């Protein structure tokens, strides 16, 4: 898949780079070269930034489908970042924490996302989105203009920004949380998110894509109470409120820039189409039930005294969800097919 249009500048700037490669990310020979992807957010886009001692995404069976071992991705295989990178015809951008010694990979952009984070503080000790953007600013201003030219950023770069609900989960985990408090938090989260999107663009990124919030009420951690058979409609109503604020905020940003700089990747509709309406390119028999399920108080990837505290389905590709929160690679494949039409409209 390719974007519809691309300024010739992108190809000229990268004419000295590799003409193509074969691998899991796709073949560059027939794709546009010169694109860069910068990623901010959480576990829906993190490809290996989180501390190995703090999260289970570095433990077996994560990564069992791709690349065959844990890489820090919160799935059995590829996540949203990988699909968008392939769409752009580039390798998945290097995680910020792995950037040292891999300067050749910088040409494709960089991934600043950390699983478990949000726009505000959460219960994980990793940089929130504002700090991630500060790191991006430091990278592009620290004698790296030979890699990240201003014009190239403006004309050939895309930012992927994911926000999958950690700010809300952190608030709900507080014993003093209320529905009224949660509703009051929603506009604050979206307001900060909008400031972050604007800042990313101000730093030179030409196009900025942000996801609508997926139906949190359909995540296995909430549907487990009814044996993964029914979504929580009350939670999804709050998600729709978040998305309503988000659409208004993005429309305002586009009005200010007088261009379609900011786009929304509609995860809410994509998830619903696949798991509720069963209209995706892949059909899932029990879409609300995850492949990897914790036993007792365990979680996917947890091993205690040599005993696995989880069960694993026979075929991850038959499940939409991998664990209590994240899709499988097959799940992301189905979701991404619904995102392609909006991505194809991007004009660099």
Structure description:
With 348 residues, the chain is an alpha/beta fold. Helices cover 34% and strands 10% of the residues. The chain contains ten helices and ten strands. The chain has helices at 8-13, 80-88, 129-141, 150-156, 166-172, 179-202, 220-223, 233-257, 267-275, 329-344; strands spanning 36-40, 94-95, 109-111, 157-161, 207-211, 262-265, 292-294, 303-304, 307-308, 310-312. The strands form three sheets. The chain has a six-stranded parallel β-sheet, sandwiched between helices. A two-stranded antiparallel sheet has the order 7-10. The longest helix is centred in the last third of the chain and has 25 residues, at 233-257. Residues 1-31 have low confidence and may be disordered.
Topology record:
Layout: H1 8-13, E1 36-40, H2 80-88, E2 94-95, E3 109-111, H3 129-141, H4 150-156, E4 157-161, H5 166-172, H6 179-202, E5 207-211, H7 220-223, H8 233-257, E6 262-265, H9 267-275, E7 292-294, E8 303-304, E9 307-308, E10 310-312, H10 329-344
**Biggest β-sheet: strands ordered side by side in the sheet:** 2-3-1-4-5-6
* Biggest sheet statistics: 6 strands, parallel
What is the N-to-C succession of helices and strands?
Answer: HEHEEHHEHHEHHEHEEEEH
Quote the distance from N terminus to C terminus. Answer: 15 Å
């Amino acid at each position: 898949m390719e974007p519809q249009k691309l300024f010739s500048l992108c190809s000229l700037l990268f004419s000295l780079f590799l003409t193509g490669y074969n691998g899991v990310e796709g073949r560059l020979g027939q794709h546009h070269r010169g694109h860069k992807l910068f990623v901010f957010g959480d576990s829906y886009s993190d490809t290996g930034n989180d501390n190995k001692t703090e999260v289970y995404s570095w433990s077996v069976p994560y990564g069992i489908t791709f690349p065959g071992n844990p890489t820090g991705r919160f799935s059995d295989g590829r996540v949203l970042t990988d699909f968008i990178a392939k769409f752009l015809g580039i390798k998945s951008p290097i995680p910020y924490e792995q950037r040292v010694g891999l300067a050749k990979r910088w040409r494709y952009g960089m991934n600043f996302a950390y699983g478990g984070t949000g726009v505000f503080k959460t219960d994980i000790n990793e940089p929130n989105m504002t700090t991630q953007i500060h790191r991006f600013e430091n990278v592009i201003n620290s004698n790296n203009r030979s890699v990240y030219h201003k014009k190239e950023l403006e004309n050939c770069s895309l930012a992927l920004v994911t926000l999958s609900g950690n700010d809300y989960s952190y608030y709900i985990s507080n014993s003093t949380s209320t529905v009224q408090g949660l509703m009051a938090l929603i506009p604050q989260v979206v307001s900060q998110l909008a400031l972050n999107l604007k800042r990313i663009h101000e730093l030179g990124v030409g196009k900025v894509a942000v996801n609508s919030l997926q139906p949190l009420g359909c995540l296995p951690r909430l549907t487990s109470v009814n044996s993964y058979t029914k979504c929580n409609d009350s939670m999804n109503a709050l998600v729709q409120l978040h998305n309503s604020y988000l659409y208004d905020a993005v429309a305002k940003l586009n009005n200010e820039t007088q261009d379609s700089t900011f786009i929304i990747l509609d995860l809410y509709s994509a998830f619903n189409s696949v798991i509720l309406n069963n209209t995706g390119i892949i059909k899932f028999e029990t879409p609300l039930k995850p492949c990897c399920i914790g036993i007792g108080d365990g979680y996917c990837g947890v091993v205690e005294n040599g005993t696995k505290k989880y069960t694993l389905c026979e075929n991850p590709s038959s499940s939409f969800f991998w664990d209590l929160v994240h899709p499988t690679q097959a799940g992301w494949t189905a979701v991404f097919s619904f995102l392609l039409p909006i991505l194809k409209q991007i004009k660099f």
